[in-house]
Design goal:
- The chain is α/β, with parallel strands linked by helices.
- It has one domain: Rossmann fold (3-Layer(aba) Sandwich).
- 47% of the residues lie in helices and 15% in strands.
- It has nine helices and seven strands.
- The chain has a seven-stranded parallel β-sheet, with helices on both faces.
- Strand 2, helix 2 and strand 3 form a beta-alpha-beta unit.
- Helix 1 crosses helix 9 and helix 4 packs parallel to helix 6.
- The termini are far apart.
- The structure holds 1,4-dihydronicotinamide adenine dinucleotide (NAI).
- The site of 1,4-dihydronicotinamide adenine dinucleotide has 28 residues, from helix 1, strand 2, helix 4 and helix 7.
């Protein structure tokens, strides 16, 4: 059981999710990670979280599979007692021009990014309603707002997350549950590492601030949306893109 507030971060073992998890740990939360694998990187992240004072554990599960989601959330509730904050961060890309995207590329991206977010939220809602408190922060993307060549599946999934966010905000607001989305631009992580230097330079030229964002910068915004400083904000989508859009 946890004496502190409990935050769950999907895909929290690396990248943006890791920095989000660390931010909550430093702010006094017990932070739980849900991820696909417990590799060396994931183990190191859990150690860092513990060093920051959090009672942390990684639960293995695929957020796009309902039975796994329900099983993991049940296990977290058993171990920690409750959940206060859910950060739907896990996501994947399978980029290609639409003509070259296979049905399985399309299904995979929408299933993880959109349906996974919906299943995780659904699994936590009863707890949030019972305690009349819940903070949900969904990681969308700026390309869910403005689109992007080569990312038809991904941009559709992230636009879907925005519609979902606004609906959850409306359905559960009266239970003191807020649901907001952040829409990052180009953030330095493994997801963007794979791009060519040329492609990176082309994007950087369109960013008003002239540089890529860092996972820490996204983490600060996510934390704000789950903190007491933002109690009257719900159904909102906040871009964090250095002016890209
Ligand atoms: P990443 O690839 O570094 O990390 C993603 C994490 O999610 C990994 O730990 C991975 O194992 C986990 N994951 C993937 N599929 C999963 C599943 N089915 N079940 C459970 N865990 C799963 O990615 P990054 O860059 O940290 O992205 C995090 C989120 O931010 C994603 O939703 C991404 O779409 C979004 N985002 C990233 C941007 C960027 O520039 N890096 C820009 C805008 C949005």
């Amino acid at each position: 059981m946890s004496e502190k507030k409990v935050a769950v971060v999907t895909g929290g073992s690396r990248g943006i999710g890791k920095e989000v998890a660390l931010k909550f740990a430093r702010e006094g939360f017990d932070v739980v990670i849900i991820d696909l694998f417990e590799d060396e990187e994931a183990k190191a992240t859990v150690e860092e979280l513990k060093a920051a004072g959090s009672k942390s554990k990684i639960y293995l599960g695929d957020i796009s599979k309902e039975d796994q989601v329900d099983g993991v959330v049940e296990a977290i509730l058993k171990d920690y007692g409750t959940i206060h904050v859910l950060v739907n961060n896990a996501g994947i890309t399978k980029d290609n021009l639409l003509l070259r995207q296979t049905a399985s590329d399309i299904t995979a991206v929408i299933t993880v990014n959109l349906i996974g977010t919906m299943l995780m939220t659904k699994a936590c809602l009863r707890t949030f309603m019972r305690q009349k408190y819940g903070r949900i922060v969904n990681i969308s993307s700026v390309v869910g707002i403005i689109g992007n060549k080569g990312q038809a599946n991904y941009s559709a999934s992230k636009a879907g997350v925005i519609g979902f966010t606004k609906t959850v905000a409306q359905e559960y607001g009266k239970k003191n549950i807020t649901c907001n989305a952040v829409a990052p631009g180009f953030i330095e992580t493994r997801m963007t590492e794979a791009m060519t230097d040329e492609a990176k330079a082309a994007i950087a030229g369109n960013i008003s601030l002239g540089r890529y964002g860092t996972p820490k910068e996204v983490a600060n915004l996510v934390y704000f949306l789950a903190s007491d400083q933002s109690e009257y904000i719900t159904g909102e989508v906040i871009r964090i893109d250095g002016g890209l859009a």
